[in-house]
Design goal:
- Keywords: DNA-binding, Transcription, Transcription regulation.
- This is Helix-turn-helix transcriptional regulator.
- There is one protein chain.
- The N and C termini lie far apart (about 55 Å).
- This protein is mainly alpha-helical.
- Strands 1-3-2 form a 3-stranded antiparallel β-sheet.
- A hairpin with a 5-residue loop joins β2 (about 70-75) and β3 (about 85-90).
- The chain contains 5 helices and 3 strands, in the order ααβααββα.
């Protein structure tokens, strides 16, 4: 009985941790932004081009959220005109494995779906 309680407790704690993570990384764009910045620091305009489909207003909002959660840093460059560069923090780098895992799963899933479509068409 006690072991069963521990399993339920472990499950509840894991679900709570997943909820916390999803709250921070929620939305369509944050994981894509993090994945981009894991490769190199980027300026706002570079991110806008790289993250296909995101609006400027949404990119600004997502960058602020990621900065508040200490996943990225914002650096104002001493240039004329003034430019801003974003980079992943050491803490944010802990998400690189997660972005790679999600990407790997996405590749496999896309292949599976495309293969299934071919089978249904034939």
């Amino acid at each position: 009985m006690e072991q069963e309680f521990d399993l339920v407790k472990d499950c509840s704690q894991k679900i709570l941790a997943i909820s916390d993570t999803m709250e921070i990384l929620n939305g369509k764009w944050k994981m894509s932004i993090i994945a981009c910045l894991c490769y190199k620091p980027m300026r706002y305009s570079e991110l806008l081009k790289e993250v296909k489909g995101i609006s400027g207003k949404m990119l600004s909002r997502e960058l602020k959220d990621l900065e508040i959660n200490e996943l990225i840093d914002r650096h104002v460059l001493n240039t004329a005109p003034v430019a801003v560069e974003y980079q992943i923090t050491e803490y944010g780098k802990s998400l690189k494995q997660l972005t790679n895992t999600i990407a790997d799963w996405g590749f496999i899933h896309r292949k599976r779906i495309i293969a299934g479509m071919k089978t249904k068409v034939e």
